[in-house]
Specification:
Layout: E1 6-8, E2 15-16, H1 17-23, H2 30-38, E3 43-44, E4 47-48, E5 55-56, E6 61-64, E7 67-71
Parallel strand pairs: 1-7
Antiparallel strand pairs: 2-5, 3-4, 3-6, 6-7
InterPro entries: S4_RNA-bd_sf
Keywords: RNA-binding
GO molecular function, one term: RNA binding
């Protein structure tokens, strides 16, 4: 079950999805991101995302198993 949304602050105007998941401590290394994406386990703004390089901007919402994140 998902609890409240956690905001993760970034520096700059945008960040790639893979970098964001590492920054948020969802994954430890980039190779873990590939597994989440390949399994269809990552949603960005409500849609399944498969691109590690997807650009995120403040306000975007990312959902991974057990956690809801907002780019801040």
């Amino acid at each position: 079950m998902l609890e409240g949304m956690r905001e993760v602050s970034i520096q700059g105007d945008a960040i790639r999805l893979g970098q964001f998941l590492k920054l948020a401590d969802v994954v430890g290394v980039g190779s873990e991101v590939k597994g989440l994406l390949a399994g269809g386990l990552v949603r960005v703004n409500g849609e399944v995302e498969s691109r590690r390089g997807r650009q995120l901007v403040p306000g975007d919402e990312v959902v991974v198993p057990g956690e809801r994140l907002r780019v801040g």
